Amino acid sequence: MENVAFIINPFSAKKNYQPFLDQLKTQINNPLYYISESIVGTDDFIRENFDSVEIFVAIGGDGTISTVAGNIINTDKILAIFPAGSGNGFSNETQFSKNLDELLEKIKSKNSRKIDTFTVNGKLSINVSGTGFDGKVVKEFEKTSRGFKNYIKVSLKTFFSYKPIRLTFADEKYAQHNGRYLMVNIANTRQFGNNAYIAPMASKSDGLVDLVLVKKFPLIYSPFFAFRMFTKKLKSDDYITYLPISETEFSVDTKSWHIDGEFNRIESPVHIRVQPASLRILI
């Protein structure tokens, strides 16, 4: 299969990438692939093969996909995905499954379309990024062996002790939304991953992101919040506000963020900017 490169994050899917690689080698004669040990290594591999490759396939979670996307954004190169992360939010939202035959059929057809991305102080995000409670959860989650059960455990433990963050908008038109929040999310797609739909109305091709402001709610409300999140029924209410934006700036009294599920330290003021139709993905 010419003009296709496979980039494998060996730390995803509990480090069990060998079955995928074995199956790939039975399907494709001498595939071009790279087992990535670092972001720098991935960047170098893509740069070296950029001119000869048309489709770059990311095998990993949202962080891996974001790294590959960062190298091909605003070009005609195409991103494809084989999900192998703990949440797989972006691959769920772009209809990529853990089925190699299906993926290879898509690659043969080469059908693609452009979607939006956005930046947080210049850092690329393709799915959902945020700060506050979920930024802290991601920081603690990275200390575990990952997996959905650990995510729930860490989330519950963090909820009891977490003090809301203070948010202040630079733009006067949003001043009414200044205040304290449990978490602040920027959603290009609808879900974090694991089918947790934080922004069920978000679209990845409308030139906007949903800024999701969540106030700390009483513990008694948490089962309702969780139920609504997992059934795509979250909407604006006393605890949640959705603001569709193309660009904005605000300050928060924390530096703990996650960008597509990966922990980052980000200084305020925080500038959010949508990059419309900037990433080409396989469909």
Pick out its properties.
alpha+beta; 283 residues; 6-stranded antiparallel beta sheet; 16 strands; globular; 32% strand
What does this structure look like?
With about 280 residues, the protein is α+β, with helices and mostly antiparallel strands. The chain has a six-stranded antiparallel sheet, with helices on one face. A hairpin with a 2-residue loop joins β14 and β15. The chain is globular and about 60 Å long. The mean pLDDT is about 90.
Structure summarized in a few sentences:
This protein has 283 residues and is of the alpha+beta class. 28% of the residues lie in helices and 32% in strands.
Pattern of helices and strands? EHEHEHEHHEEEHHEEEEHEEEEE
Give the rounded overall mean pLDDT: 91
Straight-line distance between termini: 18 Å
Fraction of residues in β-strands: 25-35%
User: Which structural class matches the secondary elements?
Assistant: alpha+beta
List low-confidence stretches.
Answer: none
Count the beta strands: 16
The proportion of residues forming helix, as a percent range, comes to 25-40%
Number of helices in the DSSP assignment: 8
**What's the Cα radius of gyration?**
19 Å
Q: The biggest beta sheet, please?
A: 6 strands, antiparallel
Strand order of the largest sheet: 6-5-16-13-8-9
Could you say which overall geometry the principal axes of the C-alpha atoms support?
A: globular
Helix and strand arrangement:
Blueprint: E1 4-8, H1 18-27, E2 32-35, H2 39-49, E3 55-60, H3 62-72, E4 78-83, H4 89-93, H5 100-109, E5 112-120, E6 123-125, E7 128-132, H6 133-141, H7 148-161, E8 165-169, E9 179-181, E10 183-187, E11 209-214, H8 222-230, E12 240-245, E13 247-252, E14 256-259, E15 262-265, E16 270-282
Parallel strand pairs: 1-2, 1-3, 3-4
Antiparallel strand pairs: 5-6, 5-16, 7-10, 7-14, 8-9, 8-13, 10-11, 11-12, 13-16, 14-15
Helix pairs in contact: 2-3, 6-7
